[in-house]
Amino acid sequence: MNVVTNPPEGLHGESLHPEGVGAKDLQSQGLQTESLPPEMAHGLDVNRIRQDFPILTQTVRGKKLVFLDSAASAQKPRVVIDAMRIAMETQYANVHRGLHWMSERTTEAYEATRDAVAQLMNARERLEIVFTHNSTEAINLVAHSYGRGVLKRGQAVLISDMEHHSNIVPWQLLRDTHGIELRVAPITDAGELDMAGFEAQLADGKVGLVAITHMSNVLGTVTPAERIVRIAHAYGAKVLFDGSQAIVHRKVDVQALDCDFYVWTGHKLYGPTGIGVLYGRRELLERMPPFMGGGDMISSVTYAQSTWAAVPHKFEAGTPAILEGIGLKAAIDYVQAIGYDMLAAHEASLTEHALARLAAVPGLRVLGQAQDRGGVVSFTVDGAHAHDVATLLDRQGVAVRAGHHCAEPLMHRFGLDSTARASFGVYTTHGEIDALADGLTRVREFFA
Amino acid sequence: VTQTDSFDDLRDLYQEVILDHGRKPRHAHRLEAFDATAKGDNPMCGDRVQVWVKYTPGDGGSDTIGQVGFEARGCAISVASADLMAETVAGRAKSDTKALFTAFREMARSGTCPQCGPELAEPMERLAPLSGVHEYPSRVKCATLPWHALIAALDGSKETSSE
Fold this sequence. Notes:
By secondary structure, chain A is α/β, with parallel strands linked by helices. Chain A is about 40% helix and about 15% strand. Chain B has a four-stranded mixed beta sheet, covered by helices on one side.
């Protein structure tokens, strides 16, 4: 899985190659793992990785940028920036319709992204990959086409109490226009899915679709996806995962998960904005009516009637995000060259360090203590509002998010209006987490 | 005092006056007897404020603000702004208060108020600690939200939004 083939230009192969400068090699040279910088302990040379991200040399308010808001949107490596620029400079035309050289080459480049995504997620077939503009659009596509086209009045959609608004509102729209019930599975005080409560919601067999996060953008909780699918399928429900956060840190294998839909967005995976992915099981996609009408999604059009293109193009009306698709391919190549084993180990190391450092800040409370969690940490500080915390951290060069994180019902579940949130990426260092903890200690003293 | 010095880098927005009024607001209570009230809501950040106004009894009728009280759920900037507002507008005519709001909003957005005439110099000086908010565009609404609620109350509206 970690084998690096043709690392993209600008990627530091030696630091990423499994046989490269990993902890094991240094150990074999008689060096102690403990003497390594923490980032190196699991084999990822973060300082080399950071050189791939031009923006990380920027200063903010006179301070070195400490960017801890990757869960909102990740920074872009040089290979992504270059892929889009080079396409615009050398090889660009509209796709899928041109009979000329430029269009054919651009179509090949754009469609190669579909192959890359299918391979990344281990889809059975490339045509199970539908491009959207983001996760939100992908969920709306399913809510519209599967919700209105396949689900029947009286059936229910089951979400959880820790969803992003993008996995709540489309289902409310479906409920209000199509007579589909909307159910919410409870979560525990630790911020984990309450599995008994989840199963209870499925018990009457009315749930046609479970739509649930694979990793909470607020709590960092990673949900037990395989178990969710097993239980849901046992009650006859299909399962959609919102993988916007999860796919950034964990290997996603849709066949192993046995899920029916899986959505994510490019810009959180170090790719451009404006391109998202819907994986859908082929037989489901084929049963679903189109989402939007227009060019590219038709087979033929007369005034009397039109027929649809085959999947996935049936769901891709209009000129797609061509350059963004090309950029996404570069991002996927970049991520795969590093390897999910490395990404997951790095994230686990950062999260462990962050939880330890933040626990030592007086008056700081971390929201959610899930057993299986990723690199998203929300917290409150006694005596300081989350917005003040974020502004005062920003003043010290540390970028975090504050607010309800597009998850108001989850905030209410914990009796809060807002939290501050730090989130990590492949370029995040232990030193940056130390800067966060030190900054928070100052904020706390400042407000004391 | 020495500790204060070590926080110099944090004080461009969070001056002592703001921390003080944010922590211990003097006017953060609903008025038992009031003539007007309105709520303000910033849906983007979840800040909420309600303002109560009591006019000065007498010949002027409802032309002059006697007292303002508020309840706020929000950050230090919004609470401090509400408190400084309540302090500053007491005894001020309605029309003056609206002019003051226009001037304050300009200061919150740009950091200065070139159009502010000498008649606003005294109240604007009291509100000046909030001028640092212009460096933080996403926080400007925190400072102006209580004012939106006050103006809505003066105009007889029930609710407003800083959006």
